[in-house]
Amino acid sequence: MNSTESTYVTIFIQMQPWRQLLNTVFSFWKAFKHFQQFHFPSVLCLHWIVR
């Protein structure tokens, strides 16, 4: 990792919304896993709507 990348990482961490972003991604992932077990077609619909 060069100095430019570490600078970006530092800025990214200091921005703080990254925690909320991670939580959102994690929630979507859990929902996706949940849907995948029961209703795979609804996941496809959800994906199509989000796009």
Overall form: elongated
The major pleated sheet works out as: none
Structural class: mainly alpha
Continuous helix count:
3
Number of strands: 0
Radius of gyration: 16 Å
Beta content comes to under 5%
Mean pLDDT value:
75
Task: Reconstruct the topology from this structure.
Layout: H1 3-14, H2 17-38, H3 40-50
List keywords for this structure.
mainly alpha; 51 residues; elongated; single chain; 0% strand
Describe this structure in words.
Helix 2 runs antiparallel to helix 3. The chain is 88% helix and 0% strand. The chain has a domain at 18-51. It has helices at residues 3-14, 17-38, 40-50. The mean pLDDT is 75. It contains three helices and no strands.
Give the gist of this structure:
This protein has 51 residues and is mostly helical.
